Amino acid sequence: MVPREAPESAQCLCPPLASPTAKDVLRRRQKRRSRQHQRFMARKALLQEQGLLSTAPEPGSSPSPTPSEAPPGAEAASRGRPRPRAESGSTPCSRKPAPKSVTWPLPSKFVAIDCEMVGTGPCGRVSELARCSVVSYHGDVLYDKYIRPEMPIVDYRTRWSGITQQHMHKAIPFQVAQKEILKLLKGKVVVGHALHNDFRALKYVHPRSQTRDTTYVPSLLSPPGLHSRARVSLKDLALHLLHKKIQVGQCGHSSVEDAMTAMELYRLVEVPWEQQEASSPQARPEDREPDSSTDVEQYMEDQYWPEDLAPGSRGGAGQAQDRKE
Known about the structure:
The protein is an alpha/beta fold. The chain is 34% helix and 13% strand. It is built from twelve helices and seven strands. The termini are far apart. One of its GO terms (cellular component) is nucleolus. Residues 109-275 form the Exonuclease domain.
């Protein structure tokens, strides 16, 4: 049986559903975005209250474009434009690297040394070690012993060395003293006056980067570009810079006193000296050639002999050659 077709009025009993217009779609999207924006703003306010997010920029201010979005030529224009300074209390975007501080060895790494020599060999012209003193950075005596030379003593040079025959009764052999002294000097910065004479007597070579010869103290105190006398005696430096008198009288020098004085002079110019060492390691003052005024041959000339000794007296030349500068 073939079903009958319903009349047109019966087929359209239900009104057709109206299709959403473009206005309705746009209105729905705006509502959805509005709800999302409200949730976003609520979360943003919460983060700002907790200090986890910086304050939003003022209305009307546009965020700076990223390098990829910046128009060509904007980067070149921004280079010539002065950058605004950061306000006090605000955190800068980038921190400048802190300047490197100048560091130098600790005080425990510094020692001062002074040696006294006597004359051996022909006419006492050979200088050999007879006493050695080592003091700490603070002037404490670390070592002070009399030493028996390897060769027989011809001239004690008592006027300068302070050594007498009685001192040799308690002296120790040179080989023993050398081991003890070098053990103290190992790994230390050695301070002294005319150190090449002391090292020669010890038959030892210390690294130049770890020596501080106080004969160069005047050059560190002089203004840049001003020529100063290359060598000044320890006695004169102590008098003019430390206002103390040393090496006074006819009893000879005290190696302990001279070592302490050398350390005091070093501490007087410690900061500029170590700054110079750190900034220009190639121009260390002790790396310069020894001054010719300290050569033994030059001290053999008559002008360096003591006035109260005749040129032909025995040992006079030997006494003069190791006279402390």
